[in-house]
Amino acid sequence: MLTVLPVHRAQQVIVKSLALKPARGETVTLHHAPGRITAGDIFAPEELPSFPRSTMDGFAVRSADTFGASEGLPALLNIKGTILMGKEPPGSIAPGEAMSIPTGGVLPQGSDSVVMVEYCEQLGESVAVLRPVTPLENTIQAGDDYQSGDLVLPAGHLIRPQDGGIMAALGLLKIEVVVRPRVIIFSTGDEIIPPEETPRAGQVRDVNGFLLGSQVLENGGDAIFGGIISDRKEVLHNALLQALQEADLVLVSGGSSVGTRDVAIEAINALPGEGVLFHGVSMRPGKPLLYGMSEGKPVFGLSGNPVSAMFGFILFVKPVLRMLCGMPPFAAIVPTVEAVLDTNIASNGGREDYIRVSLNTEGSTGITNWEGNVIRARPVFGGPGLLQTVVQGDGYFVIPRDVEGVAAGSIVKVLLF
Fold first, then answer.
1. Whole-angstrom distance, CA of residue 54 vs CA of residue 2
2. Fewer CB near the last or first residue (10 Å), C or N of the chain?
3. For residue range 356-408, what is the model confidence (pLDDT) as tens digits?
4. Sign of torsion, CA 218 223 227 232?
5. 212 phi/psi in degrees, rounded to 5
6. CATH of domain 7-23+179-324
7. pTM
């Protein structure tokens, strides 16, 4: 019989059980760095930009020469020359002089600002400046972005496209990243067949092998499908023993409830080391989740129902993967949106309910998005074996254990898939 833990308590047990070593690193090229986790701090090897440059098309000037300029009384400056993109300026400017400059052009010595071309009128070899500029206006100075030695990215940082861009600008073409944790996934059940086969009566295609593998890849792990295992303790136990020799984390889909054919708990308890640490979480979907360890390596038994397995991964497996990647178990910021609930939702006390919803914008009152439209949350009803609840859903909100329902018109915080 399951002895269930609250969600937060189960998460605490998992996090406290992991005495992790520092994440292993490997070097990848910059093109393969986005989506990976930095293995150490990354510092700027030089200042960026390496030269002062213009942020506008116009004229490089000494700002003091423009003070007091107006359309009625413009400042008249001699044009010393033209600065070309990718080229050094053709000399410096002295008081009363200016140079034509494009966006990104190198500021000539003697100048400290740029007048936008819209506020200039060229008169032969001179330019009339129609408004004043302040020192450094419309310019970027050398080192404004980064000084040599500045921290660019900290260790444990998920590398995004913009991070790759700044590393390219600094000439950092090889990056030390965390080795992807190896996650071996087993699907269990005599009724489970590979997706490429046609099911006969009583058979179902394996959904969770692909579903969990995709979640592993999405969260920085290296997913390895270990195959479909029959409902026999000895077979699963031997498969787990072999997998734990090379995996950092093992996921078993199915066999985690309390039926007579549910053998995951027995197979995990028979492994060397700690065994099962808890079995059952007070949540819906996903109650029959189990978590154990074998000589320091985590092993999960997830429900065979796809939606239950998906939520088990989101709430419990994902924090482990983050820790294996050298990050905190829980992200500081989670993408959410507030929405108006369309329908009354009842909930049994004593468990957290994870209600899948689709989001739409209609009506004239309530929480609005950036376009001013009302955001409404419409529950997508269905059991944990129906994937349409998450395929059609945009996210989910949580009904706490001590709440027996949420009324239509309530504002709910939707966590986005």
1. 68
2. N
3. 999 998 754 555 555 567 899 999 998 887 888 889 999 999 999 989 999 99
4. negative
5. -70, -40
6. 3.40.980.10
7. 0.85
CB 216 within 8 A of CB 222: yes
Q: What is the mean pLDDT of residues 150-166?
A: 96
Burial class of residue 265, CB neighbours in 10 A (0-12, 13-18, 19+):
buried
Q: Does domain 53-140 have CATH number 2.40.70.10?
A: no
Say how many residues make up the chain: 417
Alpha-carbon span 38 to 23, nearest angstrom: 10
CATH number of 25-48+144-178: 3.90.105.10
Delimit the domains of the chain by residue range.
7-23+179-324, 25-48+144-178, 53-140, 336-416
Identify the CATH number of the domain defined by range 336-416: 2.40.340.10
Residue with tokens 């039926």: 259
- What count of other Cβ atoms lies within 10 Å of the Cβ of residue 98? 29
83 contacts 101 by C-beta, under 8 angstroms: yes
C-alpha span between 309 and 317 (Å, rounded): 10
346: number of Cβ within 10 Å: 9
The Cα 214–Cα 296 span in angstroms is 25
**The two three-digit tokens of residue 37, written as one number:** 């986790």
Q: Residue 272, Cβ neighbours under 10 Å: how many? A: 9
